[in-house]
Design brief:
Layout: H1 9-27, H2 30-39, H3 48-67, H4 71-94, H5 97-124, H6 129-148, H7 151-160, H8 168-187, H9 191-214, H10 220-232, E1 238-242, E2 255-257, H11 268-273, E3 279-283
Antiparallel strand pairs: 1-3, 2-3
Helix pairs in contact: 1-4, 1-8, 3-4, 3-5, 3-6, 4-5, 6-9, 8-9
């Protein structure tokens, strides 16, 4: 209503600014998907935030069309639909088979079946202002899901002590976007636009705080991988058949009977292979292994 009207210049200004900031936040994952493109792998990235963001954009376009006069909401969410679709397609191209199937399922269930059901219900079950109100609350609910979706990333950051999968620029732009859209909703007196952005601002601040806390921390994942690799390295124990009578006293190797070595490989098989007059001995060259 008042979003595009110059009778509400501040609302128009904040709506325009919201478009600019939100568009920049939509472009923020580009480095992530460039990395996916270069490595031909989705690595540890998840598709859920992009699928939910696409669904939310579709709902907001529907809400803006039903309410009428909300051109600023339509413009940014139309751009969101296009960009999020590109991200999802790229994810499906490079994701492993299991992730592809999961992503395809939630796209069909949420973006096709879910949106179709909401569209039909609001179009035929509600009329007039009731349709706007019901659709407004649905938009609020799924906008909250958009802000809650990155919780999996927040959990990953805390677990791994690495901010690799949570770019600071994305968290910053989402926080600024939430502030601007809250002011826009407040000025045009649209609580459905204003309310979810309170939560968006809160989660944005949490993400930025986590980034500042863990940006210089040593990632736990790297240490874990090194520990696993260390466990795979066996001790170098050499079992040989030695004719005791021919050992030269000048030899520098320390020779001990296998029975005296605590961690020696069982000598039963080697003993059977030894010739008469020979003993199975082990050269004490074993090295220690660091286990994390």
């Amino acid at each position: 209503m008042g979003g595009l009207s110059m009778e509400h210049p501040w609302a128009f200004a904040f709506g325009l600014l919201g478009n600019v900031i939100s568009f920049s936040s939509l472009l923020a994952p580009i480095p992530t998907f460039y990395r996916i493109f270069k490595s031909k792998s989705t690595e540890g990235f998840q598709s859920v935030p992009y699928v939910v963001a696409l669904f939310s954009a579709m709902l907001w376009i529907f809400y803006a069309l039903v309410k009428t006069g909300e051109g600023l909401l339509i413009s940014i969410n139309a751009a969101g639909c296009v960009i999020e679709t590109v991200y999802i397609v790229m994810y499906l191209v490079y994701a492993p088979r299991k992730a592809k199937i999961f992503t395809a399922k939630i796209v069909v269930l949420l973006n096709i079946a879910g949106f179709g059901l909401i569209f039909l219900l609001t179009l035929f079950a509600f009329h007039g202002e009731t349709r706007v109100v019901s659709l407004g609350w649905i938009c609020v609910g799924f906008s909250v899901c958009v802000f809650v979706a990155p919780l999996s990333i927040i959990g990953r950051v805390i677990k791994t002590k690495s901010v690799e999968y949570m770019p600071f620029t994305l968290s910053l732009t989402l926080t600024l976007s939430a502030i601007v859209w809250f002011l826009y909703g407040l000025l045009i007196k649209d609580k459905y636009v204003a309310l979810p952005n309170i939560l968006g601002f809160t989660f944005g601040m949490i993400q930025m705080a986590l980034y500042m806390f863990y940006m210089n921390a040593t990632p736990a994942v790297s240490n874990l991988k090194e520990g696993k690799e260390g466990l795979k390295k066996p001790a170098e124990e050499h079992v040989v058949v030695i004719n005791v009578g021919k050992i030269e006293k000048s030899s520098g190797a320390v020779v001990r009977p296998v029975t005296e070595m605590h961690n020696a490989i069982p000598s039963r098989c080697a003993a059977e292979a030894a010739a008469p007059g020979q003993q199975v001995m082990a050269l004490d060259y074993a090295r220690s292994v660091d286990v994390v």
